[in-house]
Design a protein that fits this description.
heterodimer, A: 353 residues, alpha+beta, Rossmann fold, OB fold (Dihydrolipoamide Acetyltransferase, E2P), B: 264 residues, mainly alpha, MetI-like fold, globular
Chain lengths: 353, 264
């Protein structure tokens, strides 16, 4: 088994996709990107809904698509188990028959297919739902049936296309737990498509970031978190990413009239600055002591983010600070309010750009 | 000053609407009042009625089934496969809906008549002559009824969720299996509606039938043709046949709509 090797080129009149995807057997690659970046197009190409315009897809020992060689393997022969954003269960079939659909399509007799389906239904603790129709399931239940159904078809590879984005927060945890378990057990290559950093950072071994039809960064979750290459990745990883020119730890930011000092003095020239939002403190007056970074700006926006509140600031534009709800009240922060910002120099990471 | 009770539809709308409804109801009421109800059992047994009813049922049902067998595949192609000239094919398919049926019958005659472009070689090779046979009635019915089935089924296919079909294919189902196990079951109500519409259209067919198949009692004289003939000779028989057609049409409507009362 050599996993998935692919270069996917799709040309549309208003958009083109050109990405390399390599996934080793037993490992999970996440394709992470904003909506419209080309993730769905990549899934369509992998699963055989559309043919490539150029490039090649190879899975294990088989070439699935190679326009130059005139090879195109249709969807039903690709043996890719796909879990979609919506469950796409067959509406008139009960849960058991939906899961048995793959084995039956592979030529198993009805009874054998149902027995195989029951194994998966049992493994996913769905036995009580086996006789229900898809319309009688909750979103989370339906998605777990869809996962069981994909696995029951004995796929060589798994493609999980935004499997949790249509679910409410409560059912997300259950589906995520199931996915973590099956991803761990599944021996073939796994591809997770998502725009949700939480899922990706939790489930993936490696991440490929796709923006505007191109891969802009690949790496392990830790690598991306430590060193996001684009502001999109930085925002996803929950970090502020700023660009500027650096001399001996002093960085003049490109976009604003703000200079930031870092404890790291080894970088000079063009630089990326990474600041965790929780490292930014907000004050109503000029902070006491001697923070190396302190300046005055305004609040652009306030938004609750779980246990903390994320405050977006005007300078540098879009800088995000995470503070406690209590701090919002004490500082009486509202959009447009004046506020002092301070950041310890040791919290400011600098990377050569 | 008058007291407002609630929003009221304007008279300029209500009056023409009432005229429209009366225009449909008045002829039917006239028919019902003219029917010689006491002689009804006798008239229903008359050969012209019995033979036309039998022939109409056989030909219209056969035509509806043929429409189903060949129309669904065409509807599927139009809905699912982008091919060059698809828009043109779609327009041609709906042509019999707007074409005067007599013209359709004439076209059938020129194509499949004894001297027709396809009819002559067929007659020469096999001795089989289509016109003025029950087969001609069925063919004429199919010609006029097919668009109703195709348009209904294609509409349902276009609005059906194609992603479910993609999911089924990813599970290993061949395209044919996807059609039979996923697509067709999911558009069941529209298949039924298309079939009933095609049947209703075939049952009422007059112009194409009389032109292409003629008007031979017991062989090609269907109910609508029998009404037309009986109006000249036996008005009571014409009334009874008309009544039979109204009843069948009502039954069809009930089957199509299912629900009758209520505001919607």
């Amino acid at each position: 088994m050599s996993g998935l090797r692919g270069r996917l080129v799709i040309r549309r009149h208003d958009f083109d996709l050109d990405v390399d995807l390599d996934v080793e057997p037993g490992s999970t690659l996440a394709l992470l990107g904003p909506n419209g970046a080309g993730k769905s197009t990549a899934v369509d190409a992998l699963t055989g809904i559309v043919g490539l315009d150029d490039g090649r897809i190879r899975l294990g020992g088989r070439v699935l698509d190679d326009p130059a060689a005139g090879v195109f393997v249709p969807s039903h022969q690709r043996r890719m188990g796909v879990v979609f954003q919506r469950h796409h269960l067959i509406p008139h079939l009960r849960v058991r028959d939906n899961v048995a659909f793959g084995p039956q399509a592979a030529g198993r007799r009805r009874r054998a297919a149902r027995a195989a389906a029951d194994d998966w239904i049992h493994r996913f603790e769905l036995s009580e739902l086996a006789d229900r129709r898809p319309s009688e399931l909750s979103g989370g239940q339906a998605q777990r049936v869809a996962i069981a159904r994909a696995l029951a078809s004995d796929p060589e590879m798994l493609v999980l296309d935004e499997p949790m984005s249509a679910l409410d927060v409560a059912s997300r945890a259950g589906v995520r737990r199931d996915l973590a378990a099956i991803l761990g057990d599944f021996p073939g290559p796994r591809l997770l498509i998502s725009h949700d950093p939480t899922d990706v950072f939790l489930l993936a071994d490696r991440i490929a970031v796709v923006e505007d039809g191109r891969i802009t960064q690949t790496g392990t979750p830790a690598e991306l978190r430590r060193r996001p290459a684009t502001s999109y990745v930085a925002a996803l990883a929950g970090r502020n990413l700023l660009r500027g020119s650096c001399v001996a730890g002093r960085i003049d930011l490109d976009d604003d009239d703000v200079t930031i000092t870092s404890a790291n003095t080894s970088v000079s020239g063009r630089a990326l600055v990474v600041i965790p939002p929780q490292a930014i403190a907000l004050h109503s007056d000029r902070p006491h002591g001697s923070p190396r970074n302190a300046w005055r700006t305004r609040v652009a926006g306030i938004e609750p983010l779980g246990d903390v509140v994320r405050v977006t600031l005007q300078a540098p534009d879009g800088l995000q600070a995470d503070v406690t709800p209590g701090a919002i009240a004490t500082l009486s922060l509202t959009p447009g309010a004046d506020v002092w910002v301070s950041i310890k120099a040791t919290e400011v990471e600098v990377w050569p750009a | 000053m008058s007291r407002r009770i609630g929003p009221r539809a304007p008279a300029l709308v209500v009056v023409p609407a009432a005229i429209a409804f009366s225009l449909i109801v008045a002829p039917l009421a006239g028919l019902a009042l003219a029917v010689p109800w006491r002689r009804l059992p006798d008239l229903l047994g008359a050969p012209i009625v019995v033979e036309a009813l039998r022939l109409s049922l056989v030909t219209s049902l056969s035509a509806a089934l043929i429409c189903l067998v060949i129309g669904v595949p065409l509807a599927w192609l139009l809905a699912r496969v982008p091919f060059p000239g698809r828009t043109l094919v779609r327009a041609v398919v709906t042509l019999p809906m707007v074409l005067p049926p007599v013209v359709g019958g004439a076209a059938l005659l020129f194509a499949f008549g004894r001297r027709g472009v396809f009819g002559e070689p067929l007659a020469d090779a096999t001795g089989f002559v289509l016109p003025f046979s029950i087969w001609a009635v069925i063919l004429a019915n199919v010609f006029v009824a097919l668009p109703f089935l195709i348009v209904t089924v294609e509409g349902a296919l276009v609005s059906a969720d194609e992603r479910v079909e993609h999911a089924a294919a990813s599970l290993g189902a061949t395209p044919m299996r996807v059609i039979t196990r996923v697509t067709l079951p999911s558009i069941g109500p529209s298949l039924r509606a298309g079939l009933l519409l095609a049947w209703a259209r075939a049952l009422g067919e007059f112009g194409a039938t009389v032109t292409f198949a003629g008007n031979l009692q017991g062989r090609t004289q269907t109910l609508p043709l029998a009404v037309f003939v009986a109006l000249e000779s036996d008005r009571d028989a014409a009334l009874v046949i008309s009544l039979v057609l109204v009843v069948i049409s009502l039954v069809l409507l009930v089957a199509l709509r299912g629900r009758w009362w209520g505001a919607r």
